[in-house]
Amino acid sequence: MAAAGLERPPHHHQHVLVMRHGHRLDNVDRSWPSTAARPWDPPLAEAGWGRALETAEQLPTQLGFPIHRVFVSPFRRCIDTALGLIGDRPAPDGDPNAATGSGSIDPSKVKVSVEYGLSELFNNMAIRHPPPSPEDHGDWGFNIPEIEALIPLDTLDHTVKSVFNKLPQWEETETKARDRYLHTIHSLADSYPSENLLLITHAEAVKVAVSAHLEDVERFKIKMDYCGYIQLRRQVVQNSDAVEAGKFELLASHGQTGVNCLPRAQT
């Protein structure tokens, strides 16, 4: 029995959302890669912007807690998704008053940072039109200052120490990508244990986050929509000397999150 007057250390739940980007332009306009300067890095299509804005409107009801930090893959479709979620781009109909940024991701209260560890699975199965020398990182043209210039200055936090400060090695295997994604997710969570995080990334990363935290995962087939996301939660206990964090659990969907785990057909 605890001694009278002895208080337990403060504790709370940390939430981490892992989200797929919105609809990419090259899936809508098949001719786009043939004229694009960087065909390996498509932006969002109009449908993608619309889906990001719609998701921002839905999140407050679905979550019930604020997002404090957003970490985003350097690929343009992920950056655009982040901008759509914080309402930094007018709605597709051109009405500048339609995008207010009034979702659960309040641009005045959230910080956004670019994280290479959330990049696309780095091989020619996932990336359809790589540059001529894909093993040369310079060929990809990813420039962090240029990418950060797309993010509103009062929202950007470029002081964050990245988990990975460069692109993966070309011809990355699924196993190596899985290790990268899980290391990135847990490292970011451990770096900000008192904050709720949103990680905007690619389909493979969402699949990895599900499969790593789902019991009997072999029984399920994982499907995800654009802007589909999963929610991880863990208990964090903080005192003056240390922070102790429990294991993440995969929460059941609250509303439509766009990620479904469907039972595989029995054989």
TrEMBL record:
The scientific name of the source species is: Corymbia citriodora subsp. variegata
* InterPro entries assigned to the protein according to its UniProt record, in alphabetical order: His_Pase_superF_clade-1 (IPR013078), His_PPase_superfam (IPR029033), Phosphatase_SH3-domain (IPR051710), PRIB5 (IPR012398)
> Region Disordered: start and end of each range?
86-106
Q: Tell me what this protein is called.
A: Uncharacterized protein
Q: Which SUPFAM superfamilies match?
A: Phosphoglycerate mutase-like (SSF53254)
